[in-house]
Amino acid sequence: MPEDPRPALDLTRDAVQLTEDLVNIESVSGNEQQIADAVEAELRKLAHLEVRRFGNTVVARTDQGRDERVVVAGHLDTVPLNDNLPARRDETRLHGLGSCDMKGGVAVALRLAATMPRTNRDLTYLFYECEEVEAERNGLHLLSQSHPALLQADFAILMEPSGAVVEAGCQGTLRVDVTTRGRRAHSARSWTGVNAIHGAAEVLARLNAYEPRRPVIDGLEYHEGLNAVFVSGGVAGNVLPDACTVSVNYRYAPDLSEQEAYAHVREVFDGFEVEVGDSAPGAMPGLSVPAAAAFVEAVGGTVNPKFGWTDVARFSRLGIPAVNYGPGDPHLAHRQDELVPLEEIAVVEKRLRSWLEVSS
Amino acid sequence: MPEDPRPALDLTRDAVQLTEDLVNIESVSGNEQQIADAVEAELRKLAHLEVRRFGNTVVARTDQGRDERVVVAGHLDTVPLNDNLPARRDETRLHGLGSCDMKGGVAVALRLAATMPRTNRDLTYLFYECEEVEAERNGLHLLSQSHPALLQADFAILMEPSGAVVEAGCQGTLRVDVTTRGRRAHSARSWTGVNAIHGAAEVLARLNAYEPRRPVIDGLEYHEGLNAVFVSGGVAGNVLPDACTVSVNYRYAPDLSEQEAYAHVREVFDGFEVEVGDSAPGAMPGLSVPAAAAFVEAVGGTVNPKFGWTDVARFSRLGIPAVNYGPGDPHLAHRQDELVPLEEIAVVEKRLRSWLEVSS
C-alpha cells in the first residue's frame, strides 16, 4: 500500500518541531482542509477531549468539572503564499509563512491539549479557519452564531503573536468617507465652477490639527489615531472636479462604543458630508476579571495594550474577557520574512503549562 | 446601375443645408474617409482651386497672385456619437453631432471656396482630420510636419465655434503632478509613520490661496486659473499612505512661454516634488498684424480672448497669426445637445464674403 501522502502531526514532539510541521502544511485562507484534518485526527486520539468539527474549524473540550473554563484559541489559516514556504530553521528562529501568525501559538495549544489531560481549569481548545479574510467566513464568528454554547467560558486566550507578553484589550476601528462637493467647469474657465478637491483642504487641515487621545484604561495607555487612508477625486485633465472623497480611519481606545466613535468623527468633520464604512468595536482589557488577573500574574505580570484589531474583540462581544498571548513579534505578521523566535515558543508553552498545572 | 450610396455634397446650396448634409455624414475621429472623399470630390470640380489630399486632410488653394494669403481652416472630425445623429432642424437652429463643433464653420468655408473664384486675398482652404484626438494624429499637425510650405500664409482663420465673434489668442495649458511623500505604517500605530495625504493639505491650501492673474494683452483681458484636476493616494484601509499626488492644471495667458509657466508653478509649489505632464503653449492674439486688424474691423470690431486651447496655437507656432471665428456657442461643443443657430451660419458667411470681396 502506498504511504499516506498527507504529513502527519506528531503531538508528542516538541512545540518548535510541531510549529515547523504546521508551517509545512500550506493553509492559506480557504485551503485549511488538510491542516484541519490533521489536527482533528490527532486530537481524536486523546481520550480526555471531546472533539467536534465544523467546516475546517476544530473544537476540543475537557470536561473535568472545574469551576472555571478557559478558551485557548488559534486560527489555522495564513495570508497568501509569498515565496516563503517551506519552513526554514536557523539556530534561534523558525522562518516561513505562518511561523509568526500564528502556527507557533497553535503548536503550543496543541501541545497543551495533547499532554495535559488534567488541568486546574477546564479548557476549550479552538482551532479555526478563515481569520485572515472577511468576517463572514471567520470560523470563530461562524461558531459563535451556530453553537454559542460551545464557546462559553470565563476567559479566553487568543494565541496571536504578542511577543510572549500579554496584550490586553483591542482598539476599535471605524472608516468613514468624508466628501466635498463642487461644480464642474472647464479648467480654462475655472471661475465658473467650484473645485471640490480644493474644498478638501479643510478636511486635511483638520486631520493635521487633530490631537489623538491617549487614555489609560485598566492601567494600560492606549494611543488613538485619525488618519486619511485614501483620497480620490477628478473627472478629466481639463475639468474642475465636482467631488472629492477622503477616507478616514479612526482607531479608538476601547472605552468608546462604535456609536460614540462615529459621533466623535462626525463632530471632527462637522459641516462635511460623512458616510460610515467598515466599523468594528474595540474590546476593554477586562483585567479586573479574576481569571484574567490570575493569568497575567502567572505569565509574568507585564501587559501591553493592543492597538491592532484582533478576534479578542469577538470574545469580548460574547461577554468573554480575552487577551492576546503568543510567540512572535506582531509587527512581522503578514510579512514575507515572518519568523518566530524558538525561545518565545518555549517560554509561552512553559508559562501556560505552569498556569494550568494542578497543584500537588 | 445602382445609385452611389454616398451622400453627395452640393456646394451650390445654402450654408445651412450644407451644414445639415455634413452633419449627416458621420465622421467621428478616425472615420473621416467618407466626408473627406465628398469634400475632395466637390472641390476638384472647381477650376480655380488646386486641390491636394493627405490622408483624410484636403487642401485647396487659389493662386491669383495676391499680396496676401489667408488660411481658412476647419476640422472634419467630431467627438464620439452620443445618440445625436441624424441632424434635426427647427425654426432657428440645427441640432446634431458636429453641428456646433464644427460643421457649420466647415460649410461656410466650403461655400466660400465654391462661390468666390476671385478674392482680394489668396486663400488656402484646409479641411483636416483628427482634431479631437491626440496631437500625433491631428491633420494640421501632420501637414505642418510634412508640407509646411503648403500652410504658409499671412493670417489664419480657424472656423471653430466662437459665437460669430472673433476670439483671439489662446491660453496655454500645463499639467503638473505635485507629490507628497510619507512613511507607511499600520493605522493602528499611526505615530510610527508619516501620512502623505495629510501632507497634501499644504498643497491644497496654496491652491486655495492662489490669486490668478488677469493680464490685458492687445486689449484683451485673459483670466488664468490654477486648479487641482485629480488627487489620489492610499495603499489599504489600514495603512498610512506613503505618497499622495495632486494633479494641477495651470491655464495661463499667452504672454507666458511654456518655460515661464512651468517656472511659475514650481515656485507656487516650492518645497514639493513637481513633475511636468502635458504642456501646450498659448498663442498671442497677434491683432497688431495688418491682416488680423483688417479682418477684425471687417467682421464687426468685437474681439474676445480665447480661454480654451485650440489649433490657433499651432498656427501661432508656425509664425502665422490666427483667430477663431465661426458659428456656434463654444460652450456647446462636445455636448450631446450641441446645436448651431442658423442665423450665425448666415452672419459668418456674409461677413467673410464681404471681407474677401474684390472691390469693384
What features would you highlight for this structure?
19 strands; four-stranded antiparallel sheet; 11 helices; alpha+beta; 360 residues; homodimer; elongated; eight-stranded mixed sheet
Give the total of beta strands of chain A: 19
Shape by Cα distribution of chain A: elongated
| Biggest chain-to-chain interface with counts | A-B, 46 and 46 residues
Widest sheet, order of strands of chain A: 1-2-6-3-7-18-8-17
Main sheet summary of chain A:
8 strands, mixed
Question: Could you report the average pLDDT of chain A, rounded to the nearest whole number?
Answer: 94
Q: Tell me the number of helical segments of chain A per DSSP (H or I, 4 or more residues long).
A: 11
Structural category of chain A is: alpha+beta
Radius of gyration of chain A: 24 Å
Distance between the termini of chain A: 48 Å
> What is the subunit organization of this protein?
homodimer
Strand proportion of chain A, as a percent range, falls in 25-35%
- Would you list the SSEs of chain A in sequence order as H and E? HHEEEEEHEHHEEEEHHEEEEEHEHEHEEH
Helix amount of chain A, in percent? 25-40%
Instruction: Name the poorly predicted regions of chain A.
Output: none
